[in-house]
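Chapter review: from sequence to fold.
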Amino acid sequence: MDLQLKEKVIIVTGGAKGIGAAIALACGEEGAIPVIVDRSADAADQLQSQLHRRGAISHFIQAELGDPANCKTAVDEAIRTFGRIDGLVNNAGRNDGVGLERGDPERFIESIKDNLLHYYAMTHYSLPYLKRTRGPIVNIGSKVATTGQGDTSGYAASKGGVLGLTREWAAELLPYSIRVNCVIPAEVLTPLYESWLKTFPNPEEKLRTVLAKVPFEKRATKAAEIASTVVFLLSAQSAHTTGQEIYVDGGYVHLDRALT
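The token string follows.
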């Protein structure tokens, strides 16, 4: 299947590691040009080396996206470098554990800034260029917005906001033929996820307990499996799909727990 992404310029936030890196690699494999926006230059260097070995063109923009001004700067640099934006993947964020009982309003606001504000800012500043190309937007959500988790109010509120904004933007951008969708993972063994596991006395046992609850094959979703869905949604092959929440989670959220 030709996804028709060759030479398309795709911004991927949080694109240097984990799910974002897998998305950047998948874009490169389809001949697109991933613009990796991330705070980590070291991780981005390693990723770009991988992309280069595979014959892909990429570009890295170092940015701390919690500040909206940095989002504008990142978009401006992408335009100066390539002159166009053909798609946007909002992915950056982390489950920071800002809870209700063990949190406070100030940390809650910071969590919203770190996990939601840049989704709006990156999309706002990219929009004039996406209108020219009818470039799609893919937001990366989290099952936490649907299931809850406990002790992560900031992240849950942010990811709930991502779901709301996906539908809102899909509606608002209909006149421009810009599609907006959300891909929702559950258990993916990213570096951040592995760091979370290490907070438990027995990380391996915790992982076994979690994966036992995944209905399909009792395993974690691979970052590349998330990425495959994202590049499909970026492509012309999904030209009539918008406003959708697509769960790539081995049935974790919607299948009966009795099946596990």
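Two observations follow directly from the output. The chain has a mean pLDDT of 97. The two ends are 34 Å apart (CA to CA).
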